[in-house]
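::Amino acid chain::
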Amino acid sequence: MEFWHGFLLITSVHLLAAASPGPDFVLVSRETLTKGRRTGLICSLGITLGLAVHIIYSVLGLAAVIAHSQPLLTAIKWLGGAYLIYLGWQGIGAKPKQPVDLVDQSANQNIDKQSLTTSQKESTFTILRRGFFCNVFNPKAPVYFVAIFTLVLSPDIPLWQLSIYGVWMMVLQIAWFSTVVMLLSIPVILKRFQRFEHWIDRVLGTAMIVLGLNLIFRSR
């Protein structure tokens, strides 16, 4: 029963954490509304891979070291804030598309995987990397995982059990953001946003800059 008790705790706590608005949510929303379902899902996968980094060092016991090291946290805050500002600046610079460029995003979903060009593959890596670094540079993560692995769960939990919890947290993360992507990419919704995607890019880009500045200048 101890395993399932921890499993339920992890599920409830991490779902609440994943659903709370933050840089990851803003990024996935922007990528989906302006570039479509495929981009949103790839970005979600990148965020989940970033979460894996936090889980691994937490299982190894390094989360407490990072959370209690002011220089390390400060460095992560500056890196994370600068990266969010960089992403936001890219969004602010978005230009309106010409009518001829406004094609149905759903058509892109029917492209055969075998026909992907080298540039599309590189684009996939770029999207994946964007989501990955957005999550990795979140300075709240070490503090969050210290709370998860020391306060919510018992400190003497065996490694195999922690590993299962970590994988389950990744499943919850990708499931949540995939749900967000699927909802935002419903054709009726996406088509309405498509003509205004440069404004969405600019608004959400501004939000990311604000998040980045807040990350850098707020007190610990």
Notes: Residues 159-184 form the longest helix (26 residues). Confidence is low (pLDDT under 50) at residues 99-122.
